[in-house]
Amino acid sequence: MPGTEITIPAQDAGLGGELNLPEKALGLVLFAHGTGSSRYSRRNQFVASVLREAGVGTLLFDLMTTDEEEAEAKTRHLRFDIPFLSRRLIAATKWVFDQRSTRDVRIGYFGSSTGAAAALVAAAEMVENVAVVVSRGGRPDLAGDALERVKARTLLIVGGEDSAVIPLNEEAYGRLQCEKALRIVPGATHLFEEPGTLETVARMASEWFVSHFQLLGKAG
């Protein structure tokens, strides 16, 4: 099912996005990519398709405008600006709650690279609204002091060959005070380009979102 093209107002910018909400969706997952990527990321698009097959809605959107991306590619001034990225994600989340079709849906975040840190910071800020977070090859350590304030059920997924990022995820995992899990995908490097590894990520993420959205539905 094709998604709906949308524009999300964020501060002084309009962020392009694609909303896809299956009928009776268990929840809605907002995707936060790293800099240099976009809503058209092949990896995130694949994970999103697996989530939708499991009955979970998806919102893929650009954290930056085209002009911001072009400037960032030259200066790299926004690459690790986690507060900036998290503000954009929060703006998108508030937009979701302003829409009649999505205002009552349970919300989750899927973050990759620096987008994972932005997702955790946003989840800490919107603690009553964001229920579940999944990080793929992320830098959750960059969320800093926000880690202790995260209440969303959080899954960190790292490639087994991503030796530089594994200890950073272990550090962040130790600081998280919420329900959490850290899973290593054997044979996978940072971008999960090896055969079958991205499929493993999508399956892990789908199971995490579905199980927790279902539990929240029963609790509610």
Termini gap: 29 Å
Question: In CATH, what is the class?
Answer: Alpha Beta
**Could you report the average pLDDT, rounded to the nearest whole number?**
90
In spatial order, strands of the major sheet run: 1-2-4-3-5-6-7-8
Radius of gyration over alpha carbons?
16 Å
- Tell me the CATH topology: Rossmann fold
Q: What keyword list fits this structure?
A:
Rossmann fold, 38% helix, 6 helices, 220 residues, alpha/beta, 8 strands, eight-stranded mixed β-sheet, single chain
What can you see in these coordinates?
The protein has helices spanning 42-53, 66-75, 82-98, 114-125, 166-175, 197-219; strands spanning 4-10, 13-20, 28-32, 57-61, 107-112, 130-136, 153-159, 180-185. It has a single domain (4-219), classed as Alpha/Beta hydrolase fold, catalytic domain (Rossmann fold, 3-Layer(aba) Sandwich), CATH 3.40.50.1820. The chain is globular. A hairpin with a 2-residue loop joins β1 and β2. The protein contains 6 helices and 8 strands, in the order βββαβααβαββαβα. The chain is an alpha/beta fold. α3 packs across α4 (114-125). 45% of the residues are buried. Strands 1-2-4-3-5-6-7-8 form an 8-stranded mixed beta sheet, sandwiched between helices.
Summarize the SSE layout with pairings.
Elements: E1 4-10, E2 13-20, E3 28-32, H1 42-53, E4 57-61, H2 66-75, H3 82-98, E5 107-112, H4 114-125, E6 130-136, E7 153-159, H5 166-175, E8 180-185, H6 197-219
Parallel strand pairs: 3-4, 3-5, 5-6, 6-7, 7-8
Antiparallel strand pairs: 1-2, 2-4
Helix pairs in contact: 1-6, 3-4
